[in-house]
């Protein structure tokens, strides 16, 4: 099957949607499908994968409590139309088609079987109501809709209607499991030691980095060996200058890192901390940390609670509560047996997110919307779709 994937966000900027599209493309290629990905990208970059087509350079636009790097305009529209026209795709799979970027442009000009995946979780707003009026005619062209989580499904139903299939974000389980820690990390987890990890845009308030550093401030005096390893974009000098010197001295900032470096980073910490305050529809970084065998401590937002099964395979703390986070971290750092239990429960849970399973479920959707699909018996296709629809209604 020849598949066209469209990512609305800048390829070179780390993000959950970009990672999802990249990993899905590679999983589909491994299954023997032909894949082309269209995304905003710097054409002068030397490390673009061979399956990627650039839709043009991205611009920064405030969106959903964050800053999205998207592409639009007459030149971009022309590129999208040409890519769709020349692609000869059996199925077009657009991601976040309500975002004003490449996915929406592709949806407006495409015909034939079209699948859309919705990642976003956001409350009803005037902005989303305005998007609804513009996007609804194009969304009616969709052959199937996928939501990556229950919050994303609820957002889709509330804003745009429809009956999406629930297929979660995937994770390359084996890659994280076999990664080696960075030299010198994680260090000692005996009393007074331990290493915490954080990955994300640390200068974006909803990622909760300031909550983590406030918790660190309570811990450093009694834990001389405690360290925090941070990866992600942002102004490092400004971030370190804004916190007490005693906390800044315990932090190592890696800046932007590659996928391979992320796998190493998650194997290099004793606890991964996700102090986000909201706006997350899934939390792929949680499943990645769990795949690396690293226990997770996360804020008790709905998306994280679902991934961590109400705290069974990771520790939860009240949203925005630095005091509670400090207590949770201290307890887990001092309790290796509890960390081992969380690690075991996480390994059981994360297996369902492996890309081998997730990609097969996505292909099952492709096959149901593609006339004359081959390669899977009709009864098998029907059974798989029935199971997926059952998950969406759960």
Could you describe the 3D structure shown?
With 394 residues, the protein is an alpha/beta fold. The protein has two domains: 2-170 and 354-392, Rossmann fold, CATH 3.40.50.2000; 173-352, Glycogen Phosphorylase B (Rossmann fold, 3-Layer(aba) Sandwich). The chain is built from 16 helices and 15 strands. The strands form three sheets. It has a seven-stranded parallel sheet, with helices on both faces. Strands 12-11-10-13-14-15 form a six-stranded parallel sheet, with helices on both faces. Helix 1 crosses helix 15 (355-369).
Shape by Cα distribution: globular
Q: Kindly report the average pLDDT value.
A: 89
Regions with pLDDT < 50 over 5+ consecutive residues? 372-383, 389-394
Count up the helices.
16
Total domains = 2
User: The CATH topology of the largest domain, please?
Assistant: Rossmann fold
Structure at a glance:
By secondary structure, the chain is α/β, with parallel strands linked by helices. The chain has 16 helices and 15 strands. A seven-stranded parallel sheet has the order 3-2-1-6-7-8-9, sandwiched between helices. A six-stranded parallel sheet has the order 12-11-10-13-14-15, sandwiched between helices.
Which secondary structure elements does this structure contain, and how are they paired or packed?
Layout: E1 2-6, H1 16-30, E2 34-39, E3 52-54, E4 59-63, E5 66-70, H2 74-87, E6 91-95, H3 102-109, E7 114-118, H4 126-139, E8 144-147, H5 150-160, E9 165-166, H6 173-178, E10 195-199, H7 209-219, E11 227-231, H8 236-241, H9 245-248, E12 251-253, H10 259-266, E13 271-274, H11 284-291, E14 296-299, H12 302-307, E15 315-317, H13 322-333, H14 336-350, H15 355-369, H16 378-392
């Amino acid at each position: 099957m020849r598949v066209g994937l469209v990512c609305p966000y800048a390829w070179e900027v780390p993000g959950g949607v970009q990672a999802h599209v990249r990993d899905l493309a590679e999983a589909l290629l491994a299954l023997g499908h032909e894949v082309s990905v269209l995304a905003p990208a710097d054409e002068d970059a030397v490390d673009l994968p061979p399956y990627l087509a650039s839709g043009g350079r991205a611009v920064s636009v405030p969106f959903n409590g964050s800053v999205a790097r998207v592409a639009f305009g007459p030149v971009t529209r022309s590129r999208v139309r040409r890519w769709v026209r020349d692609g000869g795709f059996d199925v077009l799979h657009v991601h976040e088609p309500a975002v004003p970027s490449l996915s929406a442009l592709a949806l407006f000009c495409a015909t034939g079987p079209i699948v859309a995946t919705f990642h976003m979780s956001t409350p009803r707003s005037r902005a989303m109501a305005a998007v609804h009026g513009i996007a609804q005619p194009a969304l009616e062209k969709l052959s199937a809709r996928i939501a990556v989580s229950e919050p994303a499904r609820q957002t889709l139903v509330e804003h745009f209607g429809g009956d999406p299939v629930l297929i979660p974000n995937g994770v390359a389980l084996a890659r994280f499991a076999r990664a080696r820690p960075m030299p010198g990390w994680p260090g000692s987890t005996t009393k007074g030691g331990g290493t915490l990890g954080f990955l994300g845009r640390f200068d974006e308030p909803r990622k909760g980095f300031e909550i983590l550093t406030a918790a660190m401030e309570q811990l450093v005096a009694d834990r001389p060996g405690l360290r925090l390893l941070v990866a992600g974009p942002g102004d490092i000098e400004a971030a370190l200058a804004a916190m007490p010197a005693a906390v800044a001295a315990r932090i190592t900032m890696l800046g932007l890192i590659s996928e391979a470096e992320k796998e190493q980073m998650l194997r290099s910490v004793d606890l991964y901390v996700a102090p986000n305050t909201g706006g997350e529809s899934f939390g792929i970084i949680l499943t990645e940390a769990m795949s690396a065998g690293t226990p997770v401590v996360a804020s008790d937002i709905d998306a994280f609670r679902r991934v961590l099964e109400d705290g069974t395979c990771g520790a939860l703390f009240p949203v925005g509560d630095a005091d509670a986070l400090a207590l949770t971290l201290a307890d887990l750092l001092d309790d290796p047996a509890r960390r081992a239990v969380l690690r075991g429960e996480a390994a059981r849970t994360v297996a369902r997110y492996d890309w081998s399973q997730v990609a097969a479920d996505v292909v099952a959707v492709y096959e149901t919307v593609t006339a004359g699909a081959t390669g899977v018996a009709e009864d098998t296709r029907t059974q798989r779709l029935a199971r997926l629809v059952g998950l969406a209604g759960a």
